[in-house]
Amino acid sequence: MESSANAREKILATAGSLFYREGIHATGVERIAHEAVVSKRTMYQHFGSKTQLVEAYLRGIHEGGG
What is the pTM of this model? Predict the structure, then answer.
């Protein structure tokens, strides 16, 4: 079974890729969950909302320097 940390990282990586290619507003949570191969429930366990996911994504960009 996949660890919680791995699921979180997979969701963030998938969201980041989709946000970059298609835009934050155009990318829905169902698409992110599907592409990350996790359930929406798992996604919401890690990120309580799309807004929280976007904030984590943006924090990662800021902390990574670009």
Answer: 0.87
